[in-house]
Amino acid sequence: MSQSNNTQKNRNDKNRSGQNQLNYVLSYLIFAFLCMWLFQQFIIKPITVRETEITYSEFKSKIKSKEVSDVLLGEYRIVGMMKNPNATSAEDEKIPFTTVAMPNGDPTLIELLDENGINYTISEPANPLGSIILGYLIPLLFFGVIWYLISRQVEKSGGSFGGLGGIMSIGQSKATEVKPEDVNVTFKDVGGADEAIEELQDIIQFLKEPEQFSKLGGRIPKGVLLVGPPGTGKTLLAKATAGEAHVPFFETSGSEFVEMFVGVGAARVRNLFDQARKVAPAIIFIDEIDAIGQSRVGPGRFGSNDEREQTLNQLLSEIDGFKSDKGKPVIIMAATNRPEILDPALLRAGRFDRQVTVSIPDLIGRKQILQIHSKNIKLDPSFDLDRAARMTPGFSGADLANVMNEAALLAARRNGNSVNMDDFELAIERIVAGLEKKTRVMNEKERTAVAYHESGHALIGEIVPNGDPVAKVSIVPRGRGALGYTMQMPTEDRYLMTQSELEDKIAVLLGGRAAESIIFNEISTGAADDIKKATELARRMVTEFGMSEKLGVVRYATPQYQFLESYETAAVASPETLKLIDEEVQRILDEQFKRVINLLNENRDALESLTKLLLEKETISGEEVKEAIAKQRIKEPAIV
Ligand code: ADP
Ligand code: ZN
Question: How far apart are CA 103 and CA 75, in angstroms?
Fold first, then answer.
């Protein structure tokens, strides 16, 4: 919880600093233009407009009366000296004058000047750029130089230069540096990641004693790619690596390098590595590397993206540049959930050539993580970590941290002095299904329908030979559209499932719909999610697991994303095969649905008593389910 508040705060700070940057740039520009205007008004104009302006005819008559001298004939203007009509002393007897020249030259003018014996010069055609250079370019240059000087100053001092710091830091990396003494996590704080930790051992050794490491012939590591779904502790692992090796840790995210202006991202990468090299040995961690490292070719990319490309190239050259400083290594660790979309250049030898997979924790891992996150929480003596871990299959490390935190909050709210199992269960429900919607009132008919639906799931879960034991059934409406739920608790984590186990899973999923259809002779929309899940499972059986006799042991699927929990699969096959796949999926679902209908009809009494209990108590435990159906239930014999 506090973790997410922190990131929220960081994000706000970042937004604010971006806003400030814009403000500074704008005010600098306004200031510069104001200065230029003043310069024009008071410096340039007085120089050029000192002369007394006279008309052309006046000029001609003054020639005739020999009142002018030293005439300079320009292309656009004529200047010279004329007799001051209101002279007071000898010094201001003559004053400069100016008049507009005739556009294409006056052929009679020269004659007139000659006739009256006035000396004149013809100026070279004036360069119209002259006044622009004088009036605008010089001030512009001046402001450019000032900008440059300040930004150098800021860079040197490594911080902000008064209020102007913001504008100068556009090209600076926003990574936060954590000093070795402040990296307060070690591998002890990471649960369920023993394999990943094992793989990171030689990185630590290398950071600690680089010379020793290369003397022993170890291949010098450079980049480590941490691959895994969000919240599995990739950031935590990277930070703990820094903690173990006792080196500074730079944390940033790929998205921070993606900017609108070409070159900014690259400048930030350069800046980040410069910073890290200064304090090397060090670790740089880049979260969501896909933001910059996405493949330059391939689907989903159209056109080129100069900025991203420049940033990526800069990153590559910085990684390659490490060779020079062997004694003071900088290790770069990056996290992604989709390594397959990364640019192959990133994965080449000598770059991110080491991949460490971090996955959703298993039962033992979950227990360790819960233990870590309950260190500062007072647990009731009756609290069963083992059971807690079994109740949270599929939870990531971050989810578990959240649940533990929520449980502590709930315990505090009921003024308890320690966290017990009930708090924990309630916390799971909150995290999984959203907060209880206390205000939502279901009418009696709806409530009954939901009760039969959930009883159907629970009963089938108990009847089928491979069903996971039911832990809890509820008809208390929750957020996210779930009207009720049946929670099953696997006794162990499964890595392999047999065909009959998968069929049983589908049967349990269809149990809700089947119960509704038997009881009411009418069906509702309440089973949409169940049907989706069941269909997905059946499709995978056919296209991925080779469990259909008609289609044989052939893979027809291409998973789009490696780590997504629900596979969106697209079958690659001929139209006839696609049709066959659809038929097979339908057959599996039909068979299971018929089986479930039969089972429920045979166990109608059990279904009724379970529903009655559920309507009465709203939420019932696994034991209560077993009790309610004990007398009537006929367990389907397992097919061995
Ligand atoms: P990721 O970078 O993979 O998205 P994080 O490292 O940011 O995940 O995890 C967020 C938080 O979740 C961590 O700060 C930690 O509190 C908790 N967490 C995640 N995985 C673990 C783990 N394996 N062991 C202990 N805590 C974990
Ligand atoms: Zn359901």
Answer: 8
**How close is the Cα of 457 to the center of ligand 2, in Å?**
7
Q: How many whole angstroms separate alpha carbon 42 and alpha carbon 59?
A: 28
pTM for this one?
A: 0.55
Rounded Cα distance, 264 and 277, in Å:
20
Q: Determine the residue of 11, 236, 406 to mutate for testing ligand 1's pocket, defined as the one with the most ligand atoms within 8 A of the Cβ atom.
A: 236
Q: Quick check: bond before 281 cis, omega within 30?
A: yes
Among residues 256, 429, 454, 584, the one annotated as catalytic is 454
Question: What are 231's two structure tokens?
Answer: 């919240």
Domain that holds residue 345: 173-357
Q: How far out from the chain centre does Cα 386 lie?
A: 34
Residue 16, SS3 per DSSP: helix
Cα–ligand 2 centroid distance for 514 (angstroms): 10
Q: Which ligand is nearest to the CA of 187?
A: 1
Query: pLDDT digit string (tens) for 128-160?
Result: 666 667 667 777 788 788 777 766 655 544 443
Atom of ligand 1 nearest to the CA of 239: 6
Minimum mean pLDDT among 27-41, 161-175, 379-393, 451-465: which range? 161-175
Please indicate, yes or no, whether residues 30 and 165 belong to a single structural domain of this protein: yes
Ligand minimally distant from the alpha carbon of residue 376: 1
Taking CA atoms only, the protein residue closest to ligand 1 atom 5 is 233
CA distances from 120 to 49, 55, 104, 117, 129 (A): 21, 18, 18, 9, 25
Residue nearest to atom 12 of ligand 1 (CA): 398
Shortest-distance Cα residue to atom 11 of ligand 1: 398
Ligand 2 centroid to residue 531 C-alpha, Å:
8
Question: CA-CA distance, 331 to 325, in Å (whole number)?
Answer: 12
Helix (H, G, I), strand (E, B) or coil at 197: helix
Task: Report yes or no on 227 lying in a domain.
Answer: yes
- Residue 431 vs residues 414, 428, 567: alpha-carbon distances, Å: 18, 5, 23
Last residue of a domain, one of 433, 459, 483: 433
**Does the CA dihedral 183-188-189-192 come out positive or negative?**
positive
> Within this chain, do residues 419 and 370 fall inside the same structural domain, yes or no?
yes
Q: Separation of 76 CA from ligand 1 center, angstroms? A: 76
Among 327-331, 416-420, 532-536, the range scoring the smallest mean pLDDT is: 327-331
Closest Cα to atom 15, ligand 1: which residue? 398
Contact of 3 with 400, CB cutoff 8 Å: no
Shortest-distance atom of ligand 1 to CA 361: 23
Asked, for residue 233, whether it belongs to a domain, the answer is yes
Taking the C-alpha atoms of residue 359 and residue 562, their distance in angstroms, rounded to an integer, is 12
Helices 499-520 and 444-463 sit at what angle, rounded to 10 degrees? Answer: 150
Does the active-site annotation cover 454? Answer: yes
- CA–CA gap between residue 296 and residue 343 (Å, rounded): 6
Rounded to the nearest angstrom, the distance between the alpha carbon of 452 and the centre of ligand 2 is: 10
Count: domains in the chain = 5
Distances (CA, A) of 530 to 34, 505, 631: 68, 11, 28
Amino acid at 624: E
The CATH number covering residue 335 comes to 3.40.50.300
**pLDDT recorded at residue 477:** 61
> Of ligand 1's atoms, which has the minimum distance to the CA of residue 238?
6
Q: Which residues line ligand 1 (CB under 6 A)?
A: 3, 190-193, 230-236, 335, 369, 372, 397-398, 401
